[in-house]
Write a structure and sequence with these properties.
It is a single chain. Helix content is about 25%, strand content about 25%. It is built from 9 helices and 15 strands. It is globular, with a radius of gyration of 20 Å. About 50% of the residues are buried. Bound molecules: NADP nicotinamide-adenine-dinucleotide phosphate. The site of NADP nicotinamide-adenine-dinucleotide phosphate has 27 residues, from α1, α3, α4 and β9.
């Protein structure tokens, strides 16, 4: 089968299209014919390995798992003898950053992996983009114990995480201020933002307003700059470690020394999260924003684009 393989860490060019063996499912596994994957910041992060911490999982000097692709959608083609949760012919979507593997025509996964059947109201290719940004956003929103009526500011509202955060926060009944570039003001409003700040014209950290949560989905700000716009017990969360990994230290110390605090939740995903987001899709409260679509053969181009840090929502990689 055709796959995008990488045998060393580095720039997008380390990805090569090759023929590799088609996997076959063990008794508790399903074989999925992959329709689409995505090129996201999780995949590009593991490919470049610029965050040394990712090497602890993927291999210190070279990648142990050589096919990336954390998100997928596809159709179950075969099930192992002990599989009870899925059957042949079902359309599925999922997120798997434990073994990746969706940049290939076929993928085998344990039936208990974080995947579910595709809701009827979404295209099979689009379904590949449901979970990456949304599960990071949900993890942070849960950590901040967000409640209806709270005032939330989302910086980086056009990214995979930011665009997901706005839709999830809207479904929870919060009042959202989104920060994004001039040309995406309408998009942010359509996703559910009540107010939009154009970061090209205004510094959001200097506005005369206070928020229960400042969620920097693109990791471009800092706690010290955002402190003036946090309410007395306000929370600051960033998706990046910050300068000198400051956000980790602040997350350890601010809860002890200040009412305003930093949280840095470790990203997790479980079936409860998958079903939560699936329900939002079914209720038409969540739809992944799709920027561009590339074919598997164009994987280097797709990674180069995502490396720019300027994708809007999600980039689909069509496999079959
Ligand atoms: N903590 C984790 O486990 C984890 C996991 C995955 C990703 N991440 C990190 O989370 C961040 C966001 O990921 P993502 O997938 O959502 O990113 P993304 O989809 O690549 O999007 C980044 C978005 O931010 C916008 N942007 C760039 N500079 C901005 C600025 N100064 N102010 C406001 N918006 C700006 C970009 O659009 P314009 O440039 O056109 O405005 C783009 O739409 C990345 O830094 C990534 O490394 C963290």
């Amino acid at each position: 089968m055709k796959a995008a393989v990488y045998t060393q860490y580095g720039s997008p060019e380390v990805l090569k299209i090759m023929d590799i063996d088609k996997p076959s499912p063990k008794p508790n596994e399903v074989l999925i014919k992959v329709y689409a994957s995505t090129v996201n910041r999780t995949d590009t992060g593991f490919r470049s390995a610029i965050y040394v911490i990712s090497r602890l999982f993927s291999g210190l000097f070279k990648p142990k798992l050589q096919v990336l692709g954390s998100e997928f959608s596809g159709i179950i083609e075969e099930v192992g003898t002990e599989v009870t949760l899925f059957s042949v012919g079902q359309k599925v979507f999922g997120f798997n950053d434990a073994t990746f593997g969706a940049y290939a025509e076929y993928l085998v996964l344990n039936e208990k992996s974080t995947m579910a059947t595709v809701p009827n109201n979404i295209d099979l290719h689009e379904a590949a983009a449901i979970l990456e940004g949304s599960h990071y956003a949900l993890c942070d929103i849960k950590a901040a114990k967000v409640r209806a009526g709270q005032k939330i500011l989302v910086n980086g509202a056009t990214g995979a995480i930011g665009s997901s955060a706005i839709q999830i926060l809207k479904s929870m009944g919060t009042e959202i201020t989104a920060v994004c570039a001039t040309q995406y003001q309408e998009l942010a409003k359509n996703l559910g933002a009540h107010k939009v700040i154009d970061y090209m014209k205004e510094d959001f950290t200097k506005i005369n307003e206070e928020f229960d949560l400042v969620f920097d989905a693109v990791g471009k700000s800092s706690f010290s700059k955002c402190k003036p716009i946090l309410k007395k017990d306000g929370i600051y969360i960033s998706t990046e470690l910050g300068k000198n990994s400051a956000n980790i230290f602040l997350a350890l110390f601010t809860p002890w020394f200040s009412n305003k605090k930093v949280l840095f939740p470790l990203p997790t995903i479980n079936m409860e999260d998958v079903n939560y987001i699936k329900k939002l899709v079914e209720n038409n409260e969540f739809k992944p924003v799709i920027d561009r679509t590339y074919k598997l053969d164009q994987v280097v181009e797709a990674h180069t684009y995502v490396d720019s840090g300027q994708k809007i929502g999600n980039v689909i990689l069509k496999i079959n």
